[in-house]
Specification:
The chain is α/β, with parallel strands linked by helices and 248 residues long. The chain has 9 helices and 7 strands, in the order βαααααβαβαβαβββα. The chain has a 7-stranded mixed sheet with strand order 3-2-1-4-5-6-7, sandwiched between helices. Bound molecules: xylulose-1,5-bisphosphate (XBP) and magnesium ion.
Length: 248
């Protein structure tokens, strides 16, 4: 059995459902502000999520929908800075809450002395306000995200970066993710991974995950197990985390 020394959390879709009413709305407000009639509906955005990274997602959208438009990387970077401002304003409104079980699991892990880290594709200015609003941000030893690594998820870079910072081997860590890109990234770094899917990721391939859940659950709000062994537990807790660590 591998000793659990750290839990690494993804952010968007895992800690909170930030995409549909957060990032997507922030992108649309940015485009409107720029006088552009680019409207990312929930359906279009669901397709665009196949590309990680806000700047990369804008470029992907342009290639698909406006291939003749000449927009420079600098212009895209400017759009993304504005989008981040809009996203931060949305977070400040407080309408985006943590997902079920997240606050409880993080607090219990911290109380047991388990090290905590963040590995996200989002730009750090997007992540800090979310963590500050809902969690004790100081409990995360490292908050790694955005352009800090050359290749974003599904590349393993961000998880390898966090493992190096923590000076831990993957065998001693467990990851919580929400998407196939995140799973490919974490498994690519040799990490055991639990998936809590959401509306955008529910039909993705999670065959490499240890456990696939609809959410982390609460004592009075059991999760639904889609794949894997929950060892008789009805919500994610440290007994279940340690049991999962015993799996090969
Ligand atoms: C999700 C992403 C990010 C966000 C948008 O990150 O792919 O790109 O959608 O944030 P994760 P930015 O699931 O790894 O947390 O616009 O800052 O990229
Ligand atoms: Mg995610």
């Amino acid at each position: 059995m591998s000793e659990l020394k750290a839990i690494i959390f993804d952010v968007d879709g895992t800690l909170a459902d930030t995409e549909k009413e957060g990032h997507r709305v922030a992108f649309n407000r940015t485009f409107t502000e720029a006088g552009l009639e680019w409207n990312w509906t929930t359906e279009i955005y669901g397709d665009l999520l196949s590309v990680s990274g806000g700047k990369e997602r804008i470029r992907h959208y342009l290639t698909l929908y406006h291939p003749h438009l000449k927009i420079t990387d600098q212009e895209i970077a400017q759009f993304h800075l504005k989008k981040t401002e809009h996203y931060q304003a949305i977070l400040a409104e407080g309408t985006i809450q943590l997902r079920i079980g997240v606050d409880r699991l993080i607090k219990s892990a911290k109380n047991q002395g388990i090290r905590l880290a963040i590995a996200t594709t989002s730009a750090i200015p997007n992540v800090i306000p979310l963590l500050n609003k809902h969690l004790d941000i100081d409990c995360f030893e490292i908050i790694a995200g955005g352009d800090i690594v050359p290749h974003k998820k599904p590349a393993p870079d961000i998880y390898q970066y966090v493992l190096k910072y923590l000076n831990l081997s993957p065998e001693n860590c467990l990851v919580f993710e929400d998407s196939c890109h995140g799973l490919t990234a974490s498994v690519g770094a040799g990490l055991k991974t639990v998936i809590t899917f959401n509306q955008y990721t529910q039909n993705q391939d999670f065959s490499e995950a240890l456990l696939v859940l609809n959410h982390l659950g609460e004592p009075d709000n059991p999760f639904t197990v889609i794949k894997g062994n929950n060892y008789g537990e009805t919500y994610m807790n440290l007994n279940l985390v340690h049991a999962l660590m015993s799996e090969n």
